[in-house]
Design a protein that fits this description.
By secondary structure, this protein is of the alpha+beta class. The strands form five sheets. Strands 2, 3, 4, 5, 6, 7 and 8 form a seven-stranded mixed sheet that branches. The chain has a four-stranded antiparallel sheet with strand order 1-11-12-13.
Length: 612
Amino acid sequence: MIYLSQMLGNPVLDANGEKIGVVNDLGIATREVFPRVTSLAFQGPGKTPFMISWRKYVDTFDDNEVRLAVPATDIRFSYLQPDEVLIGRDLLNKQVVDTRGMRVVRVNDLKLSDTSSSQLRLLGAEVGIRGILRALSPSLEKLVLRLSHALGHEIPEKIIAWNYMDLIDRDLSNVKLSVSHQTLDDLHPADVADIIEQLDPRLRGQVFAQLDDDQAAEAMAELDDDEMAAKIVGGMADADASRMLSEMDPDDAAELVSELDYDRAEKLLRLMGINEQRAIRQLLGYKDDTAGRIMTSEFVAVSRDTTVAEVAERMRALPDDFEPVNYVYVTDEAGKLAGVVSVRHLFVSDATDTLGKLAGDDEVISAKPDDDQEDVAEDIAKYNLLAMPVVDEKTGKILGIVTVDDALDVLEEEHEEDLQIAGGSTGDAGSHEGSGELLRLVRHQMWFFFWMVAEMVMALAWGSPTALAVGFALPVALLVADEVVRYVTAFFLEHDEDDEDAPSLGGFAVKGIALGLFWAAVVLLVATATGRVITTADGLAGAVPLALGGFQATAVAVLVSFVTAPAYLVLLRRRDDAGKDTSGLVLHAVALVVALVAFACAVLVTAAPLVG
């Protein structure tokens, strides 16, 4: 086995042993499962690039040199063929799709296999740390491997075979890769969406350009990030974007159109067919986060006297891209929703049975278009439904249905919002391995950084010993502020404001003040006990007044944190009513700033005069 990094820069010698250049790259024919190296690119005197046929001219090779079979005077240079790529230029340090693992990775090295004394084949891409170490220095790689082995932690190779690779970082319109973008086309739309979300922004449009309208529509509907989807549509031609929207389910298309600016949205809608445009505009007429906004207008509704055979004939005539039908809805003479029959029930019924007979008199669980989408999703989960009809409150007619997949999306979205408010993270940890540790430390131990900043400020103002004495108890105030936010967010998530059984805001405030007074008293008791201990120690008696002042300031900050708790709760509720997200990280930072300001103000009253 040999790697590209081991060959790059090696001398190229002719049959007489004369050096004519150094290896610059290798060309491969892409038609094979494990492509042969067909061309040798090398840099000659004066950094002049040359390319020759590998099969015709290369005699032997290893990780030290490449020796040709002919003298330099007999070489005839060639050019890269239409079905060839240079693996160093086109693969190394580029992003590729691992179609087996369904993820986007960066190629750190390329693994080759010598199938004969003179033939090389590309096996796959090294996407792990070993490829990076080897590119820096083979000796460094060996050293790290030995150290890791001694520590009992092996570092394996991470190789993606060529037949599982899909190159996406360059224009492949004139290159026929063995798997090319057909591999992306064969993946499930949700997997394509996951891959797109991992790509650099400049590459997302390139991937969509490789998909037809149906595939692009399905992948777009699976994107979790609405803003990202809107940016992708913003980079598409108007005709392409309009066709893609036409292929999407109306509810998904309406959600995407709502993210676009008005002029762009209107332009795309006008380019669509009348029926598709009407369906999307009807959904856009409902408020955000309601059942009407997430329902689809694609459903099957028939009158009570329709037979099973007639329903079956109607369902056969539905277009291929019609929303999956799980229920057939039954209407009365006035067009009102009167019942529902599952498709499974149709299969086991006689062809002459009417839908009215099958539906019976059971009450249909339904929603109104203005109902909160989270309530509808919870009802779908509660009653184990695959879809719930949305009914006009005045006429009783069915307007659309909310399907279980949209309900799951709503519940997932609400769960992520709850995590965000609570200070959690919904990002992909694997995509932030390089910088995630520091961010995670800041997120979960933010109070420590505030403490350090406060200590540095006091040290600059009063000197290190004084700052240490005054700020000795400050972490208590910061930790309490942090816990107050957790207490508030837990209360917010557990108790709905409209719930009659939920504690009132006044009761919450009274309880917060009582807790604040209690913990402030605890801090002052600890301060008294600590002062007695310090007084008995030699040389520390002078620090007692300063330390006590710091504890008193901490008690004030603790009380302020609990007193301001209702304000955080009101903020969360008002932003939630307005449909706005609230970052738990920001809320924690605000609480720490409030505690720090309260501590600073109290210090100016208690400890600052003593510093003098």
